[in-house]
Amino acid sequence: MSKSKCQMRFYEELNDFLPPGRRKVRFIHEFQRRASVKDMIEALGVPHTEIDLILVNGQSVDFSHIVQDGDHISVYPLFETFDIQPLVRVRLRPLRVSRFVLDVHLGKLARYLRLLGFDTLYRNDYDDAELAHLASMERRILLTRDRDLLKRAVVTHGYYVRAVEPRRQVEEVVARLDLYRAIQPLQRCARCNGLLAEVSKQEVWERLPSETRRSIEIYWECGECSQLYWEGSHMPHIRRFIDSLQARAGGGVPKTGPVAELGQ
Questions:
Q1: Which residue, 40, 50, 52, is CA-closest to 149?
Q2: pTM recorded for the entire structure
Q3: Coil, strand or helix at 259
Q4: Both 11 and 31 in a single domain?
Q5: How many domains does the chain contain in total?
Q6: Is 79 exposed, middle or buried (0-12, 13-18, 19+ CB in 10 A)?
Q7: Is the predicted pLDDT of residue 4 greater than 80, yes or no?
């Protein structure tokens, strides 16, 4: 049985998933069986959640398009500066609220996202099936270092985190998903993701170190795990980091909400 051939070209960061010889160039791909463009793309290693637009012979198609012999296929990631709404996008509309679920490799990133105010689920014992289920049923964006996890059909919104160092990871995610103006710092518990609420000093007096009692007047408590927060010595560092993120979008740190430090 003779093989069919198509020409393929992947753009921008989608090349991260390809072997060096196929990056940033148009290449010939041979295939024998009937296949959708989604199956063919994922067989090459690119998760469908990373894709925003597919052109076949210059026409926009969805994931169900059946690839034909001689097709010219161009695959594009999320467009950040161009309006392509008149074209057919392969992804669902962006989620109105950015909520996340993270895999086992991204515990420190989860802490950063919570400090920035994002609803972020993380446990170090979630298995792949649980992660995919949470992403689908709770309409969360799945962040992962496992590209195969993003290929699960049930996952509609996800992102493969390229960076390894946690601070670089949060910078990457905020930039890639354009979350700058959604940042509401220190609304959530970095430990468990619960919401913080202000409590009186008298309510938590017995739980405070003696030095803190003397120097700090305002406190917040997690409604889920009862972790206490207050403005401590690490706060200038946290503020500078948040400032640096929001400065990239021309914004400033919101003035409302608790300003806190975990672990004091």
A1: 50
A2: 0.80
A3: coil
A4: yes
A5: 3
A6: middle
A7: yes
